[in-house]
Amino acid sequence: MRTPFLLVTRSCKAIHRLQHSAFVSPVSALYRHQTISVLRNSSTVSCKDDRSYYITTPIFYVNASPHLGHLYSAVIADCLHRYKLLQGFNSKFATGTDEHGLKIQQAAEAAGKDPLTFCTDVSERFKHLFNSCNISYTDYIRTTEQRHHQAVKHFWSVLWNKGLIYKGSYEGWYSTQDESFLTALQVGDAVDSSGNEIKVSLESGHKVEWMKEENYMFRLSAFRSQLLDWLKGNPRAIQPEIFYQVVLKWLQEDLPDLSVSRQRSRLQWGIPVPGDAEQTIYVWLDALVNYLTVAGYPDIHNQWWNVAHHIVGKDILKFHAVYWPAFLLGAGLPLPQTIYVHSHWTVGGKKMSKSLGNVVDPLERSKQFTTDGMRYFLLRQGVPDSDSDYTDDKAFKLLNAELADSLGGLLNRCTAPALNPAQIYTAFCPQSFPSEQGGRAVGEDYHMLEAVKNLPAVVEQHYESMHVYKALEVISACVRQTNGFVQRHAPWKLERSDITDQRWLDTIIHVSLECLRMYGTLLQPVVPEISDKLLSRLGVQPDERGLADVNFLPKIRGMDCPFEGRVLGSDTGVLFTRLDNLDIDKQNPKKTKKAKK
Ligand code: ME8
To answer: Where does the Methionyl-tRNA synthetase anticodon-binding domain lie (predicted)?
Structure first.
């Protein structure tokens, strides 16, 4: 039974190596693409059923409404999920809400609602945002669900039965806002808005309080060397690398045992410790187990749990890269394959906060910029390694330049009735554009073809490492090159009555449509609606949109092009309507002004 699986795995690796070699050697002949494409096709067939992929977002606290940063976490995960589906993986994608803990208990009290009603209301707001923004989750988990309670209790019992949890007492700092315990070194002095001296977390800036209570402790200290071994043996387990280094550093410092419960008298809103009704399970232990709950823990989690990848913001790295792997090692479960970490969005250079009045509502913005516009902006401008700054002005300029003018303009040119009166995928003429120079195409045109041919491998590498902005950067550069190609040869100036001119005109359009087909296919994970519109207009059917089908410009290699001669799709609508920034200012005068300060 084992051999076929190994064979499949090896063949997938071989394909990956080949794709990589195509990327590092851009001078490769156009023929090589064909080889890769055939292999890709076979890889999809042979690996499909064996290739599962499980991606998660953090589950979001329901103490406040969703903001731009939350949507960012979800859009990154959605992009990777869609990309894996395009590669032929069987992908599972979980998101949801984190509903227990003191912070939620207090927020519900302040709202005058019972906690569950309060959680349901806010959880629905997250769900609504994600549905509106095409976040194609396959499971939406709420920690108040029964299936999750069962998973957490089971997980706790496993740790308890292994002697990894003991009754002790905790004395130290606690931040309710972060639901986190802190050492004296992590705490500093500050003054609150009423002028009172307070202690705050140096990392988050949130207020901390001294607490002393009897509770259960997890033997975190016992896992330090195992965690170090894991990371040293898996240098790509935490990406980007700067965050991997941060975690290594943490593990070289003191790693005290961790309090994993709170007294029920202080925290009622949570899952009781099995066998001790006086204690409530610590909200982070409860929350982290959500990833297992969705995988089907404790009964049927193996298929998904072996292939888990987490997307997390930088502020919750320690919980995911230290506590969570330690809990999993304790429970005898595999560790996540990758923890992808992203940095934060600031607004006008400042941290988003209610008191500054600069919280960006992603739902409102996605109505102004369109859902795909919002997704494109976040992924094009969001850099995982460092914080990115949001302004409306940046968004509208970027979207107008890259989606409306560059990509939309290119489609318009190739499909305009003036240049393409038959409204078809025009024919490619090998005499006009031979595989080696000698026809009417010039050196720059061959460079463009080389860049577009290599695009899938380059984009794939960037998607795999969560550097989506780099993938979009190279796609955008290719779109510009294709516009340059059209501009250079000015097909509108060609003499249609001359048969060679007509053939060259058709070839220019054919090559541009092939480029657009590549862009539409590769952009699907980022802008699914725009890509659908683009590919439909090119007449590319839904079953021709996988990464294995992307075979670029086969005619130049003397092969058939299945699209040549096809009638274009009938939707002639604009791909992305130019945004008017005055509209944004009018609709949202106060917030826009503040954001620009
Ligand atoms: O931390 N920019 O939930 P959360 C980008 N419930 N991302 C941001 C951001 C910003 N300005 N602000 C927050 C929790 N985020 C826990 C997770 S998982 C088992 C439990 C990101 O609602 C943040 O980094 O406070 C995190 O990844 C996510 O939003 C959820 O934050």
So the answer is: 438-542
